[in-house]
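User: Here's a structure from my thesis project, written as structure tokens. My advisor, Dr. K., wants to see whether a designed sequence matches the one we expressed. Can you design one independently, without my sequence as a hint?
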């Protein structure tokens, strides 16, 4: 075991799990609350989402449920989620050598429910949620807060959103790794942005990330 002077910081949505699964979980919850007998509503909501139609407008008008109630259910329900393949293995394999943190944008209850559902609270040392500190990425405050709490010598940020995830840690001298969109991300990636917005490394799976850090561990341990 090392003294853990190195930190790996993660984004949450579409980095540790597919965010589309949260949407599906919320739609399932909402459909069961509104039409527990009618099993077609969930499928219809999903179909309308992928057609870029306004799902909540449809549900509000068809079932006479106020949109504010739909949004509340969406944001506060406890989801059923699974990590991407190899994420849990990664966390188990490297938790003795690295401190772990999450920097994520969103509402506190929404993001903490996701983290709890995924079992990430068992592994993560520090969690920074935008609503809780009053600023969103790419604000320097979110990343500085992690540095203040972890007090490590080196940092790596693993994320997916090219518009806001990498520009600040790049400026701070962190290693940045982007998990490539496999076609399901909520926020699409744009690698035509200026270089300061782009990651140091792009990967397509958590297995690739594990390979990167397996090599780093050998250097850290002096092997």
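Assistant: Designed independently from the structure alone:
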């Amino acid at each position: 075991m090392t003294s853990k002077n190195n930190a790996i910081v993660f984004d949450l949505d579409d980095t540790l799990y597919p965010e589309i699964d949260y949407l599906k979980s919320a739609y399932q919850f909402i459909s069961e609350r509104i039409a527990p007998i009618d099993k077609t509503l969930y499928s219809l909501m999903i179909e309308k989402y992928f057609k870029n139609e306004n799902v909540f407008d449809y549900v509000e008008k068809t079932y006479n449920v106020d949109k504010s109630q739909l949004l509340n259910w969406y944001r506060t329900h406890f989801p059923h989620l699974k990590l991407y393949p190899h994420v849990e293995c990664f966390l188990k394999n490297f938790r003795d050598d690295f401190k772990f943190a999450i920097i994520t944008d969103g509402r506190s209850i929404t993001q903490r429910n996701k983290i709890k559902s995924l079992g990430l609270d068992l592994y993560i040392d520090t969690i920074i949620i935008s609503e809780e500190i009053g600023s969103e990425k790419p604000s320097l405050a979110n990343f500085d807060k992690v540095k203040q709490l972890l007090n490590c010598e080196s940092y790596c940020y693993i994320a997916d959103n090219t518009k806001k995830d990498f520009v600040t840690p790049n400026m701070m001298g962190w290693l940045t790794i982007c998990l490539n969109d496999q076609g399901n991300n909520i926020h699409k990636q744009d690698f035509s942005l200026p270089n300061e917005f782009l990651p140091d490394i792009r990967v397509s799976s958590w297995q690739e990330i594990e390979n990167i850090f397996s090599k780093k561990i050998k250097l850290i341990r002096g092997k």
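When you compare it with your expressed construct, this may help: Residues 20-76 form one domain.
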